[in-house]
Amino acid sequence: MAKKKVMVVDDEQDFLSIVKTNLEETNNYEVKTLASANNLISEVYAFEPDVILLDVLMPGVGGVEACAILNNDPIGKLTPIIIVSALFKDQDKYCAYKEGINDYLVKPVGKNDLIAAIEKAIGHQH
Amino acid sequence: MDKKLDPSENQLSKVLASIREGVTFSDQSGHFYVYNSAMEEITGYSMEEANASSDFISLLYPDPKDRKVALKGIDELLKKKTSREIETVIATKNGQFKNVLVSSSLIHYAGRDLFLSVYHDITRRRLVENQLMDNEWKVRAIFDETYQFIGLMKIDGTLIEANRSALEFSGIQASSVLGKLFWETPWWRHSAQLQEKVRQAVKSAANGEFVRFEATHLDKDGSLHYVDFSLKPVKDKSGKVVYLIPEGRDITERKQIEKNLEDAYAKLKETQGQLIQAEKMDAIGRLASGVAHEVKNPLEILLQGVNYLEEKIRPEEKKMFEIVQMMKNNIKRADKIVRSVLEFSRSGELSLKTEDINSALESALDLVRYKVNVSNIEIKRELSAGLPGILIDKNKIEQVFVNLLLNALESMPEGGKLFLRSYGLWLKGAGGAAGIRLTDYAGLKNDAIAVEIEDTGCGIPEENKKKLFEPFFTTKRPKEGTGLGLSVSKNIIEMHKGVIDIESKAGRGTKAKVFLRIA
After folding, report:
1. What's the CATH architecture for B353-431+441-517?
2. Interface pTM (ipTM) of the complex?
3. Cβ-defined contact of A91 to B432 (cutoff 8 Å)
């Protein structure tokens, strides 16, 4: 079975590295990490992810803004988006949902919950 | 005709020369036989000049009116043969005018009717009299026309003068107050308390004290005015109080200005309070979400790290397994603490009760009713009946609705429609169910109630949409908006763990949505 491609965008280097390790250890995922969403569309075209994990508060282009950019792109809008953020207020979630996302996870989210959300978002795509 | 009179006339001439009044003897033709030096001094004309003039009467009385009076006097003298006294004005040789008192009598002398006239120069006296009258008039004018109420009374309180301002203000006649005890006059009749106070004040002033207090008077239409009242003793040279002067100044307008100032100050304080509140809530919010972000991110890394480790534990390493579980539990515990600190710091200011959202919306509408009434606004209610009660701070939620309603009304100065909606959002099981994008989803996992306030006004230009909730962002003129309405509203809704959203199309209208969790 082909590995699913997961793109992780977060400005925390440690987060990127541990998530990459955990996901790739399952042998089910190929992970591409990005420290910012500034060149997201070209990265999406290059990597062609099956799902994108997005942080909200990042320097430069933030996660919600990145959703809007993806939703305005013919390929981007077909790629499932999961927000993984420390922001947990309903107002924050609402703003993200309004742009159009598939799921919203609040940090700290463990490995199993993260994988479950990824599978759900990818699985329901087809 | 013998122009020379009796030789004894010379003696008479000496006498005449010494007296200060002008004295003349003349006949009906106007010829003078006697014309003393005082007369020369008064008129400036010598006897020779007077006699040489063909019409001395016209010279002396250039004003036809005065001349007529003089001629009439001569005529009457001739007819009635009695003496006569007139006050008139003559012109002197050098063009001056003089007030003179002329006493004339007809004397039969040497077989002829002669006029004996005595001219008394009263110019100076008249001048002094006029000045005195003028001064009296000025004082009276000041007394009567001044804006202040002034009177004069005896030391026992009997009023002997009251100026026109005081009388006209209350629409009373002088006759109804003069001679009366001051505290029994109509100015004080509306308050027994004031009457007593005035009575005491008269007593104090009679003892030489200056009394001043704030009082009230009713004007002629019966409306209450505030008066700065004072009572001042007037002393004679020996220092004895002889009169009292009551004075009143209408300070109603000043009081009104003071009140306006106080109101403006209160409003300023309120705005300031709102500002401080907004600032405080903003600071707490920023601090709390900053802490949340800063702590939750490392917790995430810890949790993922622990997840990594737990898979590496061999079944026989029970102690290690226990420790890893303990680490996981404590990561969750730390997360809970961060959340509760944030929630506690924000909701501490709320006074929560189960309320009906529709009635909160109606109360808010009542508060802005005056604006609805003056604009041509049609209210369309689409409120769901039977919604469950929700746990809210009603005053604060009303404040949010008032802010949203005011924004809606102010966007429709020419009138329009105002939609008020409420409905339940039943979202259970909807979250994340679809693989495709979820849009327009309230993000609320629990059931919620939505309130919408929609107008058909001017809408919000695209460039302003991102700044809507920023403190101090306003498109209103300085005195009309602080730019805090929506910022404060968002804080209040977030304190309730709710959601606020504003959708708008420039030129078409704006829809504000508030989502609140059902308790």
Report:
1. 2-Layer Sandwich (3.30)
2. 0.89
3. no
